[in-house]
Design a protein that fits this description.
Chains A, B: This is ROK family transcriptional regulator. Chains A, B: InterPro entries: ATPase_NBD, ROK, WH-like_DNA-bd_sf, WH_DNA-bd_sf. Chains A, B: Belongs to the ROK (NagC/XylR) family. The structure is a homodimer. By secondary structure, chain A is of the alpha/beta class. The first copy, chain A, has three domains: about 1-80, Orthogonal Bundle (Arc Repressor Mutant, subunit A), CATH 1.10.10.10; about 85-205 and about 385-400, Nucleotidyltransferase, domain 5; about 210-380, Nucleotidyltransferase, domain 5 (2-Layer Sandwich), CATH 3.30.420. In chain A, about 40% of the residues lie in helices and about 20% in strands. Chain A has helices at about 10-30, 35-40, 45-60, 120-140, 175-185, 195-205, 265-270, 270-285, 290-295, 305-310, 315-340, 355-365, 385-400, and strands spanning about 30, 60-65, 75-80, 85-90, 95-105, 110-115, 145-155, 155, 165, 170-175, 190-195, 215-220, 225-230, 230-235, 345, 375-380. Chain A has a five-stranded mixed sheet, with helices on both faces. In chain A, strands 14-13-12-15-16 form a five-stranded mixed sheet, sandwiched between helices. In chain A, strand 9 and strand 10 form a beta hairpin. The model of chain A has no long low-confidence stretch (mean pLDDT about 95). At the A-B interface, helix 1, strand 13, strand 14 and helix 11 of A face helix 1, strand 13, strand 14 and helix 11 of B. Chain B binds a DNA duplex (30 and 30 nucleotides) through helix 1, helix 2 and helix 3.
Chain lengths: ~400, ~400
Amino acid sequence: MRKEYDKMDIGLLHLENKKVILKLIKHENEISRSAIAKKSGLTPPTITRIVNDLILNDKLVERLGLGDSSGGRPPLIVKFKNTSNHVIGIDLGATYIRGCLVDLNANFISEIQVPTELEKGFESIVEKIVAIVAKLRKRKGPDEKIWGIGIGVAGLVNSETGIIESSPDFGWSNIDLRKELDKRLDLPFFYDNSTRLMALGELKMGIRENQKNFVVINIGYGIASGIVAEGNLLKGYNGFAGEFGHISVDPDSDVQCKCGMYGCLEALASGHRIASLGIQELENNRSEMLKELSGGNKDLITAELVANAALKGDKTSLEIFDKIAEYLCKGIGVIANLLNPETVYIGGGISLNEGLLFKLIEEKKKKYLLQSNLKVQILPATHGDQATSIGAVALILNKIMNLELR
Amino acid sequence: MRKEYDKMDIGLLHLENKKVILKLIKHENEISRSAIAKKSGLTPPTITRIVNDLILNDKLVERLGLGDSSGGRPPLIVKFKNTSNHVIGIDLGATYIRGCLVDLNANFISEIQVPTELEKGFESIVEKIVAIVAKLRKRKGPDEKIWGIGIGVAGLVNSETGIIESSPDFGWSNIDLRKELDKRLDLPFFYDNSTRLMALGELKMGIRENQKNFVVINIGYGIASGIVAEGNLLKGYNGFAGEFGHISVDPDSDVQCKCGMYGCLEALASGHRIASLGIQELENNRSEMLKELSGGNKDLITAELVANAALKGDKTSLEIFDKIAEYLCKGIGVIANLLNPETVYIGGGISLNEGLLFKLIEEKKKKYLLQSNLKVQILPATHGDQATSIGAVALILNKIMNLELR
DNA sequence: TTTTTAAATATATTAAAATAACTTTCATAA
DNA sequence: TTATGAAAGTTATTTTAATATATTTAAAAA
């Protein structure tokens, strides 16, 4: 990247124009050279030269054939070559490691999932990543290219050094994943925090293009968020931006969070909390449904099980979700009033249960959002449980589109 | 500005390099052509040509003389021409309108303050702005140039249309200030929300350069904030970003905010609240000092008076500030944990009382900030009660440095 | 005084895009 | 059926702004 006081030269000028043309072709999918000229302001000869370069050297564009004439020579249509160009995305979670091979339009070619088996240690996890990559590489055709590997890690990643500074999920601190993977992978790879990647996926490959202000909330066993503001994915001064789980939503609460503070959203509204409230209700014998579904075994009570009970109409479980939604709404209120996003996406395990949570939040949001912010849309994350994988893919796709990869 | 799919051409290339050189000269203040070459990567001939252009045409750079030789021809030093280039900054507040004439290094040449007199209406306010500008223009020398006028408005400004969509302070909605001022001013002028401008001033003209993540909290009769994240001043989807005053810090509070919600930071910790708590204590006869300072007249009790009492050691007033600091700290905790800023600046009337508030916040912050965010610095706004004016100047200076003004 | 070194400038060259002229191809209409 | 014109794309030339190289200027070191 060009630094603050770096010159602009003719090479960068050319690169900029090449990027403009590539992005236009990807955006329009099918387009003629003369249409590119109109949209970009570049002249036809320049476009011919650059498009040919993209076809012959970068192999990111292909000729499609003739388009319809409108009273003259019919246009030669070119197309973004999404097939035969692939990316590997990896979601490195505490319970599963998931890998996927996708084309540049995010169509899944192949997918693999293996248990993480944390107890076997860091070395074993590296091994599993390498094995997944090797397997996925076999699933591509002979003339097809894999541009790189994106990895979403459940932990704090320093984007400068590549060091995983800390990961409560894995129990890691100061792990140099880059160094280890460098030895074992011969493809370009990049990684970042998994929730941040969910936001990147939403930014680059979400349902709406050109959204510049939104937040992705990831609710699993913990609660985190990825924030996009003015089109930028926020990292913050030390890379900690997005710690949505540790804003206080009930200062008088006696539930202590892992972080030591009281009343954190994560302590009050995470998957863990749903399960523990469920267990409490089971022990107090307040729900027949929970008893039935778990067979009375409290170890079998999970957030998912409580959600199922609620969906089946269990009043106690519904009350739990009502409470959770109330807390989440307070948190969303804070984020909405502070950042004025266009959309708040909710992802992670909790968002998969058919709209129960969204219905509750929709009912409650009036209480916590400024009148002027009520228009904010609260939606499930576009890519569901593949959100991190897609985000990891977006990390690579972004570099391809910026011509940073060969 | 260049749009997403717009070409880059050789004119823009040249403009970019001109900007690089201008910014380098301003940043270094005094620098030789060959040093510019080293820092920018541009070659000496190019630099000579562009620097001469900046000296002769733009008049933003001047020759200073010879520097020290280090064994060869001594360098010809050039300098950013801050004197004889001026900007007018205007702080349009509900009680006062303040105008200042400053040079491009933010040195004050002249300053004017007039009461706003809201009751005389919009037309009268426009008149006052025009009069301030006319007066300030007379205070510049004959060969000196005023580049433009920046205006900070206490209200929500739509930066696309220039419409002031709403301003509780002025009781305005959908006011087209641009249209009115266009008729009366023959200098380029731009305006934005005053708190956002405080943040812009901190970004472009603050004590630290190159801070990319920070927040400015403006505590006056209301509470607002300006957020800079990844080097960008946040506006949000509808331009509402920064409504820090309306995050809930005490959901159980029975103090209702003007916005209709309960427990808003603005309702609990603004200048208004400090005064109203002071009045309450006076009426309950709990403070001799407040009684003495106000002569028993509750209409004379202001936030400033309570602050003075606290500084003189009045226990009741200290308790008020303690409570206020507690609420503010909760709010700062939310912002710090969510955005991971490097610094949180506090400005507005409340920040002027000699560090009392900062001492209290420093003591309390452990309770509300994640361990990893405790390093965040909480400081008074660099430019004190001139923060909005300086921000308004920064708005223009920014355009000058981007060569958007002639 | 001569040589060396650094800074600035003058002149020639280069890279990339713009311009202009030209070819190809088809729709339309005489 | 065949001119005609318009749109798409190509080729050749020009323009622009930067770079490379050579030259001039000026002071420090030999």
